[in-house]
Amino acid sequence: MITVLGRRNSANVQKVMWALGELELDYQREDVGGSFGYPDTYPNPNQVVPTIVDGDITVWESGACVRYLARTYGAGSLWPRDPAELATADMWMEWHRSDISMAFFPLFQMLVRGLPATPEKIEKHTHNSGRIFKQLDAQLEGRNFICGDTLTMADIVNGAIAYRYMTLPIERPGLSNMEAWYHRLTGRPAYAKHVMIEYGSNVGEWNVHEQANAGIQ
Ligand SMILES: N[C@@H](CCC(=O)N[C@@H](CS)C(=O)NCC(=O)O)C(=O)O
Q1: What is the CA(143)–ligand 1 centre distance, in A?
Q2: CA 50 / ligand 1 centre spacing (Å)
Q3: By alpha-carbon position, which residue is closest to atom 12 of ligand 1?
Q4: Which long-range contacts (CB under 8 A, 24 or more apart) does 198-207 make?
Q5: Which residue's CA lies nearest to atom 2 of ligand 1?
């Protein structure tokens, strides 16, 4: 049984939950972070979510958690066996962490979570997010998933963020490959359960959704 410490409406927690769902692993999730706060025994020195505990092993940093689950329980599926495919998956995981995080996370925080914003900043981050997601769109040309025909850990980390990017009321450039991929993801039960979670359109709604998700596994 794997324990996940992290609130259900955190995109970083959602990556882990979706991976667990795809791998059909047993888990228990505890509400930690945000309005739920942190227990004194919380094992992640950064006081952010997620953290996972699997027997004697504790892992934090969402990318490391997804890699751990994929490598330990998903060889040949989320963790590609082919070295070239594995390198591609890893590359798009790193891309997600740097490029998408820099452009899109502040945009989401400004539009939904009350980070101070100006029309210029919103415009800049909307433009940059679109420009960067165009790179993912190009990678998805002729492919069902980021590495090819099957879902890998690269789809997990990027797909969790894509839900928010594709559902925010913002202007997006033409992203036909990404739209088709996103549509494919929405048809996966584990994605629908763990990622497609309403987040509201302002801080008040965000908090209501956070509490409404308390205790849901
Ligand atoms: N690099 C970390 C970032 C984790 C992070 O910033 N998580 C956010 C939620 S998405 C968080 O914990 N925020 C503070 C809180 O919820 O208490 C990771 O990928 O795990």
Answers
A1: 31
A2: 7
A3: 48
A4: 199/9, 199/112, 199/164, 200/112, 201/111, 201/112, 201/169, 202/112, 202/114, 203/112, 203/113, 203/114, 206/9, 206/112, 206/113, 207/35
A5: 61
pLDDT digits 0-9 by tens, 127-158: 999 999 999 999 999 999 999 999 999 999 99
User: Which fold would CATH assign to domain 83-194?
Assistant: Glutathione S-transferase Yfyf (Class Pi); Chain A, domain 2 (1.20.1050)
Quick check: pTM over 0.70?
Answer: yes
> In the chain, where are the structural domains located?
2-76+203-212, 83-194
Q: Atom 13 (ligand 1): residue with closest C-alpha?
A: 48
Query: Rounded mean pLDDT of 190-198?
Result: 98
Cα–ligand 1 centroid distance for 116 (angstroms): 19
Kindly indicate whether the domain formed by 2-76+203-212 is annotated with CATH number 3.10.20.30: no
β-sheet bridge partners, residue 51: 5, 60
| Residue 99: band (very low, low, confident or very high) from pLDDT cuts 50, 70, 90 | confident
153-167 per-position pLDDT tens digit: 999 999 999 999 999
**Residue located nearest, by CA, to atom 14 of ligand 1:** 48
Joined tokens for residue 115: 């980070």
Report how far ligand 1's centroid is from the alpha carbon of 175 (Å).
Answer: 28
Average pLDDT for the chain: 97
